[in-house]
Amino acid sequence: MKRDKARIKPFCDQLAQLWETHGPDLRFGQIISCLPLSIDRPGHDPFFVEEDEMLEALQRTFSQEGKAARTLDAEQLDSLKDRWEDMMFNLYGTKFQTEEFKSLFLDTWSYLRDAVDCYGVPHKVVSLVAYLGKFNGNNQYPAHTPPWEVDVCGKFVDALLYGLENPLRPYPSLDFYGGSLVLEPYMHQQLRVTPKTFEKVFTELAEEYRKNDYEGGYDYYEQEKLPFPYEEEE
User: Fold this and answer.
1) Nearest-angstrom CA–CA distance, 195 and 103
2) What pTM does this model have?
3) From CA 45, how far away is CA 12, in angstroms rounded?
């Protein structure tokens, strides 16, 4: 496709006007780094964007809404990291709560859908993603929490990490940007989960794990001479 080179100077002039009027203190690299999130397409990919759509994205980037979104983005990221820090601390004690994990997971999932763009996981978000790895690197069950629920938590964390690895997998209608995760409850079995089906899938899978893996209760673990990973609160 041959494009008219006459479009270039007007585009640059409009960019200059936006830049001078709304963000003269920004470096060009800062503008470029903020731009993808203003592009309304899967992965926020600027590669296929024509100049007219790019100008619309630039206008959104320089708008008050765009500035507020960048501030909220930083505040939200710090808040999520603080919540994961508390979660990891409680994971080894008695204060871990499954409902708290669910809320934090859904908020993290939502945030990463917006933060991860066509260039991959932004550097500023890597520390948040690292908490997901730390969670699944835990080698003990928290006291007073049913282990089957903790197992399901781990499966969802795995699914989110899997989605981040290649956001456009498995196919466009059910990809990461489309709001889906691919959960693997058992080997060679896959479930596709959306935020709307999250609670239902979590509850059903926890019950399935309880029946399949923990139905024997204390008797099973005593017979196998293993410590039962769950203590009922008195």
Assistant:
1) 11
2) 0.70
3) 20
